[in-house]
Amino acid sequence: MTPPPPTTSLSFTLWNDDKPTTIILLHGGFTCRLEFALILPHLSDFHLLVPDLPLHSASRHIKPGTTDHSAQHVAQLIRSHAHGGKAHVVGVSMGGYVAQCLALDQPDLVLSLFVTGAAPASGTRLFMAQWPGLTYYTMKMMVGWVPSWLYQWQASLLGLKLDIELIEDMKENITWEVVHDMFPWILEFGLDDVRRLKVRTLHVAGAKGDDIGMMVRTVEALRSRRTDRGDGSGGFVLREGVHGWDMQFPELFAGGVGAWVEGEKLPGEFERL
């Protein structure tokens, strides 16, 4: 895989440059790095790289927004700015697929994976991926065509803590290009690909938004890997979590990431599958 030229580098923010261990946080589809705003203060012990992915917000000019192309840009960011040229990669939803694509193609850059809402597509998510036009207009109706304050209130009913600035960025990020580019790799990603992951990997699902049946199968695939040497790889579920639970429980999300990176026990809300 050939890295993109430096002239098309992702826009990103860097935090805690004096800390030795690098974590890179990859946001979900239609959001941006502001998705992690409430999480960053709880990860102050780590060097953090927080980019906007292609076709999103400050990286909107970078095209295409396909999963593999996004992974190339993340690889470039890790090589250029991660301490030691390696990072723990954390991804939510679309960002989780980008993270796994990176780990499959360039495992030498990835110290570990922590992904949520990024198991092989099934059920409603598979249907939405197969019909991107439906996804586009659904997002427009839910977010793009309603006042930001109204969507903020609706999201708060699910426990989501969304800043108005993030919602305004989301409105701009709901484009046909994003929908068109996001799904092809996700549709092809299956359990055989999970088995090919060579890095220490944690999959997480929110029980109120993700397919737990598919998560169980994903965990079984992780455990069947020949490369698994008891490194703790596996899966967990949050019973009260929605699909984007990082914006629902930011402190818990940070606690889980920190514990995973440090090889410590995850918080009690994480139920092992």
Automatic annotation (TrEMBL):
Pfam families according to UniProt: Abhydrolase_1
AB hydrolase-1 domain: residues covered: 22-145
Source organism phylogeny: Eukaryota, Fungi, Dikarya, Ascomycota, Pezizomycotina
Stored InterPro entries: AB_hydrolase_1, AB_hydrolase_fold, AB_hydrolase_sf
Protein name in the entry: AB hydrolase-1 domain-containing protein
Domain of life from the UniProt record: Eukaryota
